[in-house]
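In the laboratory, one determines a bound structure by crystallizing the protein with its ligand and collecting diffraction data. In a computational setting the workflow is compressed into a single prediction: the sequence and the ligand go in, and a structural description comes out. We illustrate the idea with NAP.
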Amino acid sequence: MITITGATGQLGSGVIDSLIQKGFNPSNISALARSEEKAQALKDKGVNIKIGNYNDYNSLVEAFKGTDKLLLISSNEMENRSQQQVNAVKAAKEAGVKHILYTSIQRQADSSDSPINFVLDSHIATEEAIKESGMNYTILRNNLYMDMLPWVLGEQVFETGIYYPAQDGRIAYTMRSDIAEATANVLMGHNHENKDYNISNTHSLSFQEVAVQLSVISGKTVPYTSPTVEEYKNTLVGAGAPAEVADMLAGFAQGIAQGELVADDTDLPALLGREAVSYKEFLNSLYAQK
Ligand code: NAP
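The predicted complex, in C-alpha cell form:
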C-alpha cells in the first residue's frame, strides 16, 4: 500500500494520476485528505481516502496504518510547517511505515544565512527527523516549479520586460508534472531506499536567458532588469501586492542570485527515463500563440 499526503493538491494528484497511468492499481493507493468533499475526485478514481490533518497526530497514525511506502508531501502552511511535518514523521514511525519519501527542496548548503531559509528551515528539520527515525527513506530535493515562472514574469512581460532581483543568478526550474512522474517512478521502483535525489532540470537558466527566449518568441526585444531587492519589494507593494508575497518573491530571487537553486547535477532524467521539459519548450508552449 502506498499512502500519499497532500493528495488533493497539485503535486499529490499528479503523482496519483501518474501511478494509475503506469498501471498501478488505485485500490493499493491511499490518499490523505482534509475532507471527504475535497477527496471526491480521488475517490472517483478508485483511490482509498483517509481523512487526516498534519495538525492532528492521531488522525495521521490512523491514516498511515498498513502503509508500506508513504509519500509525505510538504505542507503549504508556512507558519507551523516544521511541527506539522515532524508530527507526520513520528506518526509514520508509530504506524509502522516501512519507507518514507519526502518532497524537500534543492539547495547548495544548509547555511543559517540562506535567503531561502523561510522555506529551507522546515525542510531541513523534516529531513533530520526522517533520518533519525530509522525508517527507510528517500529525500526528493525538488527544485522550484517552472509552472510558477509566469507568475514571476507578470502578465505584461512582453510590454514591460522582466523585472526581478535575481541578478545573473541561475535556477533549474522544473515542471511540476515531471516531478510528479519521477516521484511515481520512485514509488513504483526498487533500490531507492536511503537516498537523497536532486530533482532539478538539466539546465540552470538565468533570467537573461528567459528574456532572450521571450524575445525570440515575440520578435521584439524583451529586456531583463534586476532592481535592488528594496526597490523590487516597494514596486510590488506599490502595485497592490501583499507584503508577504513581495517578501517571498524577493527571497527566492535572492536565493537564485546566490546560486541556491542551481543544479550542477540532477537525478531527474535518470528517474524519468527521458529528458525533463526544458524552459524553452515550456515558454514556447505558453507564449508562442500570443
Ligand atoms: P498545493 O497544491 O498547495 O497542495 C498542498 C497540499 O497540502 C494540499 O493537498 C493541502 O490540502 C495539503 N495540506 C495543507 N495543509 C495541510 C494540513 N494541515 N494537513 C493535511 N494536508 C494539508 O501544493 P503543490 O503544488 O501540490 O506542492 C506540494 C508542496 O510543495 C506544497 O505544499 C509546498 O510545500 C511545496 N511547494 C513547492 C513549490 C516549488 O516550486 N517547488 C511551490 C509551491 C509549493 P487541502 O487540499 O485540503 O488544502
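The chain has a mean pLDDT of 96. Keep in mind that any predicted model is a hypothesis to be tested, not a measurement.
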